[in-house]
Design brief:
Mean pLDDT of chain B: 95
Distance between the termini of chain A: 54 Å
Number of domains of chain A: 1
Strand content of chain A: 15-25%
Number of strands of chain A: 2
Order of helices and strands of chain B: HEHEHHEEEEHEHHHHEEEEEHHHEEHEEH
Structural class of chain B: alpha+beta
Mean pLDDT of chain A: 87
Distance between the termini of chain B: 17 Å
Largest sheet of chain B: 5 strands, mixed
Number of helices of chain B: 14
Helix content of chain B: 25-40%
Strand order of the largest sheet of chain B: 4-6-5-1-7
Largest interface: A-B, 12 and 21 residues
Order of helices and strands of chain A: EHEH
CATH class of the largest domain in chain B: Alpha Beta
CATH superfamily of the largest domain in chain B: Enterococcus faecalis V583 domain
Largest sheet of chain A: 2 strands, parallel
Structural class of chain A: alpha+beta
CATH topology of the largest domain in chain B: Enterococcus faecalis V583 fold
Oligomer: heterodimer
Radius of gyration of chain B: 20 Å
Low-confidence stretches of chain A: none
Shape of chain A: flat
Strand content of chain B: 15-25%
Number of strands of chain B: 16
């Protein structure tokens, strides 16, 4: 019988985090001395689906 | 068939090329009625998109009344107000006639206008002469001191400037603005360097043509004491640079941003003279002692034409001192405003660079697609007028162009491109 693979010890080693979207998540991690890179991203057109659709057709 | 995105990109490349290849030259000062035929009696050109008397804000009404008295259409402010409310005065936007005006932007028949010629394309644009700071007509001031200053500008300063400019053979504005940027100006709320550089170029010609020493001394003193003297020149340059970029089929580049104190309006290259409007927003800023946001009128003026060409809030990185003056945060943050505006523009203007940002060209050519996609509104550095007529400037700040203008423009642009 095959042995189940062991899950990686993600939390046993120091974390380096890329945070996309809400900046407060990265701030919380930084306050706990976690190496964090924040990516400033939000959905196109503030999440408006009609405008998002128009934009994609207009090559934005 | 070619993809729509490519068609738009190519049209935008053309529009940006037109904007960047313009050569604005300050060539003259003339009487308004000599160059704008429509300025017959009782027509007032104003800042921003079209608006009727009933919807005008306090300072706009104050300026309308003041200019009606200045023109001799009414003997006092009460009579002028009656004329306006009875529809005996006609109103139209400056932009419709190759003109721009700061704040209330009053342009009428007997006012002198600065003339900037775009020598690459041959078109001309006009703006009144800057009156100085404090209680002035552009901020809704309309008392006797305001009217007397306008009379002096018309009768003494303007003829002298016109003669001096003609003698100089014009003054090239592109290199002058480039130099001003390296000296800390952004050409909207800081014009200290460019006003000084302009006076330095004009001074020998003014001295050569002045009828007497006292006339010259008054002119020098007026210009030298007004840090914003160059603002109106920069605005006319902006109008001269953007006008040739109208009507390029498939281009989503913004050709004008302007406000009348009630509505904010934008125009887009491919949709020509059509305005896309939304309620104007309140600037966030700092107030002169004794005033606060409760005294302030919402955002106003054609002066956002300087942001349309990549100056003002777009060039904040060149003018860290302005960040403090307009309440935009620490001087070290000024560059971030410029970087943010680079997210919504088609390219950079290599003729106008910012030394403190490793000679980055100012971000130029606002693309309505990028504005809507990133949900990032253009930043505008602005003066703040008191909301009541007759008081004048009470502060300076940063305003945002309302997103709704760009969303409306995008929908119409999409229709025009056959996109549903």
């Amino acid at each position: 019988m095959n042995k189940k693979p062991k899950p990686p010890h993600l939390l046993d080693t120091p974390l380096s985090v890329i945070n996309v979207g809400l900046e407060t998540f990265s701030e919380d991690l930084k306050s706990q001395n976690v190496v964090t890179l924040h990516i400033d991203w939000s959905p196109p057109a503030g999440g408006d689906p009609e405008l998002g659709d128009l934009l994609s057709k207009l090559g934005a | 068939m070619e993809e729509i995105g490519n068609v738009i990109d190519r049209a935008n490349e053309q529009a940006l090329g037109v904007l960047l290849s313009g050569e604005p030259v300050l060539v003259d000062v003339v009487l308004a009625t000599d160059v704008i035929n429509v300025l017959k009696e009782k027509i007032i050109l104003h800042a921003g998109p079209p608006i009727e008397w009933k919807r005008m804000c306090g300072p706009m009404r104050g300026a309308i009344c003041g200019i009606a008295v200045f023109e001799g259409w009414a003997s006092n402010l009460n009579e002028a107000e009656k004329l306006a409310s009875q529809e005996a005065l006609e109103f139209a936007p400056n932009h419709q006639f190759g003109c721009v005006g700061p704040m209330t932007g009053m342009t009428t028949a007997s006012q002198p206008l600065i003339v900037v010629e775009n020598q690459h394309y041959g078109n001309r644009a006009y703006c009144t002469i800057n009156e100085g700071l404090g209680k002035v007509m552009r901020f809704g001031g309309n008392d006797q001191t305001v009217l007397e200053r306008l009379s002096w500008i018309k009768n003494e300063l303007a003829p002298l400037l016109g003669q001096a400019l003609r003698r100089a053979g014009g003054i090239k504005l592109k290199p002058l603005i480039a130099r001003g940027l390296t000296m800390g100006d952004e050409m909207h709320q800081r014009n200290v360097a460019c006003s000084s550089l302009l006076l330095r170029e004009l001074a020998p010609h003014m001295a050569a043509v002045a009828p007497e020493t006292e006339t010259l001394a008054r002119a020098y003193s007026f210009i030298a004491s007004n840090d914003q003297f160059f603002l109106n020149v920069a605005m006319a340059a902006g109008k001269a640079l953007t006008d040739p970029a109208y009507g390029i089929k498939g281009s989503s580049m913004v050709t004008a941003m302007s406000r009348n104190g009630t509505d904010f309006g934008i125009r887009v290259s491919s949709t020509g003279d059509r305005w896309f409007t939304a309620p104007v927003e309140m600037p966030k800023g700092l107030y002169f002692p004794g005033y606060s946001e409760s005294d302030a009128n919402p955002d106003m003026g054609d002066s956002a034409i300087v942001e349309t060409i990549g100056l003002g809030g777009f060039a904040m990185g060149a003018a860290p001192a302005v960040a403090g003056f307009v309440g935009a945060g620490a001087a070290s943050q000024a560059g971030q405003y410029t970087k943010n505006m680079a997210e919504i523009t088609l390219g950079e203007n290599k003729s106008w660079t910012i030394p403190a940002m490793d000679y980055l060209g100012v971000p130029a050519g606002i693309d309505i697609r990028r504005v809507v996609e990133t949900n990032t509104s253009p930043t505008i550095n602005t003066g703040i007028a008191h909301k009541e007529p007759g008081i004048g400037q009470v502060g300076a700040g940063v305003a945002k162009a309302p997103m709704a203008c760009f969303q409306k423009a995008l929908r119409t642009f999409a229709e025009q491109m056959g996109v549903k």
